[in-house]
Amino acid sequence: MQKPLIAGNWKMNTTIHEGASLVIKLRELIKSIDSVDVVIAPPSTSIHHLNQLIAGSSIQLAGQNVFWKENGAYTGEISAEMLRAIGCSYVIIGHSERRALFGDTDDRVNKKAHAALKAGLKPIICVGETLEEKESNSTLGKVKGQIMRALAGLKTGSLKELTIAYEPIWAIGTGKSATPETAEEVHNSIRELLYEDYDTAAAKKIRIIYGGSVKPDNIDSLMAQPNIDGALVGGASLNAEDFARIVQFESV
Ligand code: PEP
Fold first, then answer.
1. Given 114, 167, 184, 187, which residue is catalytic?
2. What is the pLDDT of residues 201-249, one digit of tens each?
3. Cβ atoms within 10 A of the Cβ of 9, count?
4. pLDDT of 102-140, one tens digit each?
């Protein structure tokens, strides 16, 4: 079993100076932690600088997005190799904001996952249902479809590098987290889907993390669930004390 993964998605927040001061505080607060993979995804303008500030700590870096081509006339895009070269080990792919606002389809998510793995980046693939889909009992169908299409063509051997982030869209940035039981039910179904499609040993290595209004006061109960292997944290990752408390969840 891999370590739990706690990842902070800073989204389009923090200048390079603000990011530096956040990382310096965080680094100090979690300096004794080595039982959790701690990842931050700052804006790409800060990654190179922050990579120097995390040297010697257990904090790792993620891109918030990646383009699947290696180079060329793709104005505004960043390749997987470029993210690797400035110190990223992970990349978030298919976040619901990218799907809703920037046209990331399942097919694009799949291409990005292939490109990330090829460059040695670990993809964190986001899936999740809208409130409407939840209310019409379509959560599992939606999430399973997104995962099947995102993972299409990936080799079994690369699954250990993969993380699935289950992020109900209605829970992102709303303060309304899924209950631990509801999240566990979806995570358990995702795990079963992976068992059906891949051999059990390979599927077990995929971390399934939860995202959606994770805060210091709900992380412990979420992490107590057997199939919740970590968290993707938005708003609370912008506060060093809150994120440090989330990283130091109490395992029950
Ligand atoms: C996210 O954006 O991935 C997220 C989970 O945000 P928040 O924690 O703010 O709900």
1. 167
2. 888 899 999 999 999 999 999 999 999 999 999 999 999 999 999 999 9
3. 26
4. 999 999 999 999 999 999 999 999 999 999 999 999 999
167 is catalytic: yes
CA 103 to ligand 1 center in whole angstroms: 19
Helix (H) or strand (E) holding 147: helix 139-151
User: Which residues, in sequence order, are CB contacts of 55 under 8 Å at separation 6+?
Assistant: none
Question: Is the four-CA dihedral 118, 121, 122, 127 of positive or negative sign?
Answer: negative
Q: Residue 112: which of 173, 61, 70 has the closest Cα?
A: 70
What domains appear along the chain, each with residue ranges and CATH number? 5-247 (3.20.20.70)
Nearest Cα to Cα of residue 121 among 66, 48, 194, 165: 66
Q: Which of 95, 97, 114, 129 is catalytic?
A: 95
For ligand 1, residues with CB inside 6 Å are 9, 167, 172-173, 211-214, 232-236
* 44 CA from centroid of ligand 1 (Å): 18
pLDDT tens digits for range 56-77? 999 999 999 999 999 999 999 9
pTM value is 0.97
User: Looking at ligand 1, which residue's alpha carbon is closest to its atom 3?
Assistant: 234
Which region holds residue 88: left if phi is over 0, alpha if psi is between -120 and 50, else beta? beta
The whole-number pLDDT of residue 56 equals 93
Residue 252 pLDDT more than 80?
no
